[in-house]
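Hi everyone, sorry if this is the wrong subforum. Our group has a chain we'd like a structural model of before ordering constructs, and none of us has done structure prediction before. Sequence below.
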Amino acid sequence: MDLVRFLKTKQGYATAMTVAVALALALFLYAFRGIIFPGQPAQGPESPSVSSAYRHPLTGLPIDAPLSSLPQVFGVMVDHSVDAWPQSGVDRAFLVIEAPVEAGIPRLEAFFHEGQQVDKIGPVRSARPYFVDWNDELDGLYAHVGGSDAALDQIGTTGTFDLNQFWNGFAYWRSTDRVAPHNTYTSTDLLGKALAHAREAGKAPTLLYGTWAFKDPSPAQVGTGVTVDFGATSYRVDWTYDGKSGTYSRRQGGLPYAMKDGGTVAADNVVVAVTKMTVIDTVGRREVKTVGEGDMILFQDGRAVRGRWKKPSQTERLRFFDEDTAEIEMNPGMTWIEVVPDAEMVSLHEPPPNS
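Answer:
Right subforum, don't worry. Here is the predicted structure as tokens:
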């Protein structure tokens, strides 16, 4: 039977219609490829998952394409005394390191990068040598208001990319709603202007900092939290795991830790690092071991991983290793590091049995 006679039969007609519908559907789908209809999840670069092929080198968060160069880091010394509360901008940092200064009062170093927009950061306070070490491993533009003699000497001899408010007032402002020294602030815009001036003058550093390894989160429904007791009740820190978000919320002195604009902290990784600290003068200033290694516990995905922190030199990156000496991959997002002199300051909150 030839093709024309076959198509005139019922069987041939049905076959022809099936082929025609299939071809029409294929042409329709081709014409509308890439269009996202209401209720349809976006795919590809428009809405990358955490498993994106590219990650931001500092946060581990997905990005659409690899960066052409490492972004400049801003390391800002943030006042953490009671008189400085509530603070501004700390909740927007990709990394915060907390360690005691005089009288055991903690101080923060909050790290931002030049791709961020944070309108108010502070109050900004003075430098200490150990915070300079943590800044320099990221080639950071170090924002502070003065500092201890040892810190200022170190800045002058190690080539720290420095932005002391004493000599760079254009990058800071003083608020009128607080008294000094708890009223100095900066922003990523102002820090960016200082960076631009340094680049124009050929004084910005070549960025060579190392990056952490990141993984996709694997959050548990319930998990272990931690309390870090810096002495006074006001400075007791509680980190509580939230299984829905896979992050750790922070309480300070028994109250939710909130910024002046109401923002709160949700850390994706919390690290407690134990290191040697020695009081070196009558004021109570401390010498803190930053280079070498020591015990640590890393909290992520509701789990507590014991191991060691390691920082081979002043300019090399602080990293974390499990008890099998494998480097721990970090969750993308915010990391908060608590640095303490004694493991007795730390207590874990285990989840209820069978939870």
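For your construct planning: Residues 3-8, 23-49 have pLDDT under 50 and may be disordered. The CA atoms of residues 271 and 300 lie 9 Å apart.
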